[in-house]
Amino acid sequence: MIEENGLEGVVAAHTVLSEVDGAEGRLVIRGHTLDEIAQHWRFEDVVALLFKGFFDTLPGNAAALRTALGRARREAFERLQPNDDSVLRRLPPIEAVRALLARLPDGDDLQTALRLVAAPAVYTAAVMRWRLGVQALAPDETLPHAVDMLRMLHGRTPTAAQGAALDTYLVTVCDHGLNASTFAARVVASTGAGLASAVLAGISALKGPLHGGAPGPVLDALDAIGTAANARHWLEGAVASGQRLMGFGHRIYRVRDPRADALKGALQRLSAEGSVNAARFELAEAAEQAALAILREKKPDRALETNVEFYTALLLEALGFGRESFTCVFAAGRVSGWVAHAREQVHKGRLIRPQSVYVGPAPEEAGETALAH
Ligand code: ACO
Questions:
Q1: What is the CA(249)–ligand 1 centre distance, in A?
Q2: 202 plus 289 within the same structural domain
């Protein structure tokens, strides 16, 4: 049955946006390799790349787009209301950010799109500050997006290496073929609902641990493992009890997820300036090696390798994000892909409406309903 297979192997869209080669471990974003993008590009550059051709009014140069995205951060911030902190600090951050995003108006124009791309960064920083009992900070429109996100979170300007590391993260996760959240966004966009609706569908799909919710649990596992010497014992116990090891395995990749190395590289560059806890990094590397060995032994029929979430956890922890906010930070990057896919779907696609096969009882077999009088 196709649904038991999770639609594996089904082609549901033609896209110019990204190609995921699961056999070779290669990710191409609109003609550029992940390696190139992860090392040299800012988030604004990737937004320009993904949006090209989908908006008539897209600024033609990076400086103008940076200004427009800064203005969009301000617009998103201005929608916060005085009592938001007391209500939203009690929700899991991903639910609080989703609630705030739901206030943004629908539309299909560039301003709507940029506001949606800007908003997860603004709202994640605000929500995380509210949880600490401090006020949200207004954006600084003049700063690059990643730098401003860290400033809004911590209340101080990050180092150049920290800003670059967050840029690497955001661009590394900007788009990735027809993953669950992007597919959800495209389905909603195909109805003509508008970009905000598509983004809400995307963030809802991202929340689950099988998609974007894994990096927090990666750190929980590292905490429980405690020491490199305990890694094998702990991880073996987890697999024996039927748990999935968070940060490993992928529907498409049968080799190492190239994004894991892009993020490990960013982590190494950050460690050069002392912003990474060296003992934590060593523990993570030991746990990764032990996990890969165990998965090879216990699940020999399935190639299970390190995925993007493993080093996401380490990198975002080093940048001072609380683990409960990791999925929100993922959304702050992936939202650029959701919006581009939504526009592509509207430009080229029809309403997405597959069929199902009815396997329930025939009317003559159904019997009385539970609610029969
Ligand atoms: N640990 C242990 N076993 C695993 C793992 C894992 N991380 N991943 C897959 N398996 C096992 C499954 O238990 C299953 O074995 P079984 O049939 O004996 O129960 C088999 O491998 C199925 O493998 P796949 O078909 O490759 O898995 P699927 O495509 O259904 O799921 C997924 C992919 C959800 C990512 C899975 O590997 C997983 O749960 N990983 C852990 C969570 C995680 O890291 N999520 C983030 C993914 S990256 C992203 O979405 C951004």
A1: 5
A2: no
